[in-house]
Design a protein that fits this description.
Elements (H helix, E strand, L loop, with lengths): L3 H11 L4 H17 L12 H11 L4 H14 L3 H5 L3 H8 L6 H15 L9 H5 L6 H12 L8 H11 L8 H11 L5 H18 L20 H14 L5 H8 L3 H13 L3 E4 L2 E4 L14
Antiparallel strand pairs: 1-2
Helix pairs in contact: 2-12, 3-4, 3-9, 10-12, 14-15
């Protein structure tokens, strides 16, 4: 049984992990993983497109909600080309229920760039992956590990929870910079894919057993309520624009019972972000999400 207090003391006294500690740590994480499997459809594939879809969907969205949409998404957009050439409105309709619609448009822009600039060939290096629209260090490294088996160190919320729990016992304000040496030192280079799945599952279990250790991270931010937020207004506005193409700002404000100023401000933001476009005096869902992107229906 690993002792967080003892591991914390040993690590901070030595400033590094010895081989025996790394072995014991991996053994404990893998033991839990093999005894408590969490079946997920994206864990059954190494297709980089499928992995990218799952990673983007899982950002700030619960696993069970993603499971339901993931299969539907890949049935509707089975390849990069299908997503790249699909109408934005079709994507946004399918995305409803996942929230954070910016992720949807970023995913489509990724598909467009792969389809056009990479001629349909999925990028395989961290540099190329991070050059995709909206893809940051975490997502690039997660795709590299899960799709291509590359031993790239990265941190997400459940991984963060594990390392704070074991190596920063009862400490507060822990930064990812402090955790990264531990992530690198314990990384199973022979099987990074399953190692990261095991870490994530262990982190989920820790949150069930203890007050979330991840809250002791300096990066922890409490998510604000959706109800009554500007995010909710934006979501309702997008639905209304989809249902009533060409709707006028005054009509939109009336339908949503929202302030005209807030509606106009959000329409301008949604237009800048590539969601909507002006049609006469009204607004509709944009037909092309980025310069040079295809705007014809997929075949």
């Amino acid at each position: 049984m690993l002792s967080p207090q003892r591991l914390t003391e040993q690590y901070h006294a030595a400033g590094e992990l010895d081989a025996a500690t790394v072995t014991a740590f991996r053994r404990a994480i893998y033991r839990h993983f093999h005894a408590n499997p969490r079946p997920m459809p994206w864990r059954e594939t190494s297709d980089p497109y499928h992995i990218l879809v799952s990673e983007v969907m899982l950002q700030q969205t619960q696993v069970e909600r993603v499971k339901a949409k993931y299969a539907q998404f890949l049935e509707t957009f089975p390849t990069v080309r299908h997503l790249a050439t699909a109408p934005l409105e079709e994507l946004l309709r399918l995305w409803q229920g996942l929230g954070y619609n910016r992720r949807a448009i970023a995913l489509k822009r990724c598909a467009e760039q792969i389809h056009i600039l990479h001629e349909g060939n999925f990028p395989t290096t961290i540099h190329e992956l991070q050059n995709l629209p909206g893809i940051g260090p975490y997502t690039a490294r997660a795709v590299a590990a899960f799709a291509f088996g590359l031993p790239e160190p990265f941190i997400e919320t459940n991984i963060r929870t594990v390392f704070i729990h074991f190596f920063f016992h009862k400490q507060e304000g822990i930064s990812d910079r402090q955790l990264m040496p531990l992530v690198g030192a314990t990384l199973d280079h022979s099987d990074p894919r399953h190692w990261y799945y095991a870490l994530m599952d262990y982190g989920v279990r820790l949150k069930q057993l203890y007050p979330n250790p991840g809250r002791r991270s300096s990066h922890h931010v409490r998510q604000s309520p959706f109800k009554g937020s500007n995010r909710e207004l934006r979501s309702r506005m997008l639905r209304a624009v989809m249902e009533c193409p060409g709707i006028l700002p005054d009509e939109l404000a009336k339908v949503l019972e929202a302030e005209r100023g807030a509606v106009e401000k959000n329409l301008q933001a949604l237009a800048r972000e590539g969601f909507v476009e002006q049609r006469g005096d009204g607004f509709g869902i944009r037909t092309c999400t980025s310069p040079g992107a295809p705007d014809t229906p997929r075949r």
